Amino acid sequence: MNTYKKRQLLVDYLIREGVLKSKDVIRAFLKVPREEFVLPEYRNSAYEDYPLPILKGQTISAPHMCAMMCELLAIKRGCNILEIGTGSGYHAALCAEITSPSDSPTLGYVVSVEYFPELAEFAKNNLAKTGYDDRVYVLVCDGSSGVPTSKKFDRILVTAAAPSIPSYLLKLLNSPGRLVIPVGSTFYQVLTLVEKDEKGDVREIKMGGCIFVPLLGKYGHREDTV
Ligand code: SAH
Fold first, then answer.
1. Which of 9, 132, 151, 225 could form a disulfide with 127 if both were Cys (CB 3.0 to 4.6 A apart)?
2. What separation in Å is there between the alpha carbon of 159 and the centre of ligand 1?
3. Residue 85 DSSP symbol
4. Closest by Cα among 95, 180, 86, 94 to 138
5. What percent of the chain lies above the pLDDT cut of 90?
6. CATH of the domain at 160
7. pLDDT in tens, 160-214
8. Segment holding 76, helix H or strand E
9. 31-55 mean pLDDT
């Protein structure tokens, strides 16, 4: 079976399961080649719905988790997006495809930050070979404590388990804006949606249980230099 067919079957499955819903997120899932974001030895598993190992003991999230987060973020064309936890770059590419489709002029962009320089390089290569390096900017830093930009973002996603919501992220979120983050211990978290309204008022909605790799760094679960 060719890769596009496999991608289509995964998308059909995620629609049937009620995880993929909106037109723009479905289009992005059909467009971004997940096989280009996994290690060569896992290419054949790229369209299975589970996380896969990447470098440094980290994982590329399962497709259904990327889908859930993209749907919760309700990304509109032109949104500027911040991701904490670049990993493979796959989720960043999905976000880029939603805010700035490949066949239209560049509208919004994605800034994605990664703790491990090796993973940032891995992601940059993956994004370059798939053509997303014009809309995704990868930076190396400890995203638990801050990012080297004073720009604000319309959408923020954290793709590692945080002990609590880093307060600086709320300041970086535009009004209105949305933030999605797994909050909890290292072995179980609650996927949390934070909505900021036009007046800057914030409310938190708990969406359900999930399991992510831990957020590292100063305000993460631990410092790590693996
Ligand atoms: N979004 C990724 C998967 C994320 S796995 C993808 O699409 O492939 C979580 C990632 O968060 C890992 O790459 C890990 O190294 C990174 N990470 C963990 N703590 C971090 C921190 N404090 N700042 C930035 N990145 C962090």
1. 132
2. 6
3. -
4. 86
5. 96
6. 3.40.50.150
7. 999 999 999 999 999 999 999 999 999 999 999 999 999 999 999 999 999 999 9
8. none
9. 97
What is the H or E stretch that residue 225 is in?
A: none
Determine whether the shortest distance from the Cβ of 216 to ligand 1 is under 6 A.
yes
- Cβ atoms within 10 A of the Cβ of 79, count? 22
Pairing assessment for the beta strands 52-53 and 136-140 based on DSSP bridges: unpaired
pLDDT 10s digits, 158-171: 999 999 999 999 99
Distance 162 CA to ligand 1 centre (A): 11
Mutate to test the pocket of ligand 1, among 50, 61, 156, 213 (most ligand atoms within 8 A of CB): 213
DSSP H helical ranges for 74-149 = 90-99, 117-129
- Rounded to whole angstroms, how far apart are CA atoms 85 and 144? 10
The residues carrying an active-site annotation are 61
Structural domain boundaries, residue 196:
3-225
Q: Ligand 1 centroid to 199 CA: how many Å? A: 31
Residue position matching structure tokens 């991701």:
83
The kind and range of the H/E element at 52 are strand 52-53
CA distance linking residue 38 with residue 59, whole number of Å: 9
Number of domains present in the structure of the chain = 1
Tokens of 63: 């497709």
Predicted TM-score of the model (pTM): 0.97
Integer Cα distance of 190 and 188 in angstroms: 7
